[in-house]
Write a structure and sequence with these properties.
Layout (H helix, E strand, L loop, with lengths): L1 H25 L48 H8 L1 H21 L2 H25 L5 E3 L2 E3 L4 E3 L7 H13 L4 H32 L4 H27 L10
Helix pairs in contact: 3-5, 5-6, 5-7, 6-7
């Protein structure tokens, strides 16, 4: 009787020690294996468990720890995801501006592209002024008449405003077809605005010569850039299709 009681107590102590080792090693144990030669206290398991290599049935395999989940989203990553479209637009816009400035800085571009284009602007302005009865003559970029003369420099040919507009179109999230429509709509519109600028400065020089420098350097420069952005907003609202949002 005493031997049976001692064996029963020793079996309980062994099972308790095994549970403690399981808790220390893995934090938790889905199912504790009984000690070899002892009864399995769990229902549905094998009645007896033998030593490794024996003939008894083995208990269920221990569960491997669950794979760690994804790392929590950082505030910076969440902020970028929230303002991703705006950040990409600003980055594309600034990159395009720098690219245009870099290309236009080459002398070969100025001689073979910008200067001929500016001369064409002067000739077109002279044709329009002749329709209003002005007897103009054009020599390179100089537009003159018996009453007044204007020299169309690089800042007055619309290239700067066109570069800003094209940079905004390139940076805006849209398809290449929509960007091509933006080029086709915006470039002629900006050149028409710049033509009005040249004609108005010609008549300002005749009738209000004291106001010419202010109108040339500040007023019309701001108006052309502002109207270029208005043309860009018109293109973005009219021709760019906003993709439909996926249902949550």
């Amino acid at each position: 009787m005493l031997l049976h009681r001692a064996g029963h107590l020793s079996g309980r102590a062994l099972r308790r020690a095994q549970r403690m080792r399981c808790l220390r090693g893995r934090g938790e144990c889905a199912r504790h294996r009984p000690v070899a030669g002892q009864r399995d206290p769990h229902p549905g398991g094998s009645r007896w468990v033998s030593e490794p290599g024996g003939t008894g049935s083995q208990g269920p395999p221990t569960q491997s720890p669950e794979p760690p989940g994804q790392a929590p989203e950082t505030p910076t990553r969440g902020w970028f995801r929230l303002y991703r479209t705006q950040i990409l637009f600003i980055g594309g816009f600034l990159s395009s501006i720098l690219a245009f400035a870099f290309v236009l800085n080459f002398e070969v571009v100025t001689l073979h592209l910008v200067n001929p284009y500016t001369e064409w602007i002067a000739r077109a302005s002279g044709v329009v002024l002749d329709l209003f009865g002005e007897q103009t003559s054009v020599h390179g970029t100089l537009l003159s008449s018996p009453r007044f003369a204007v020299n169309i420099y690089h800042g007055c040919n619309g290239v700067l405003a066109t570069s800003i507009y094209l940079s905004a179109v390139l940076g805006f999230p849209s398809t290449w077809r929509e960007k091509a429509l933006g080029f086709a709509v915006g470039i002629p519109a900006i050149q028409l605005i710049n033509m009005v600028r040249i004609l108005s400065l010609y008549y300002i020089g005749i009738y209000w010569p004291n106001f010419f420098e202010l109108a040339h350097g500040y007023v019309w420069q701001s108006i052309v850039i502002l109207l270029s952005m208005v043309v860009w907003i018109f293109w973005a609202e009219r021709f760019v299709q906003v993709p439909a949002r996926k249902p949550a």
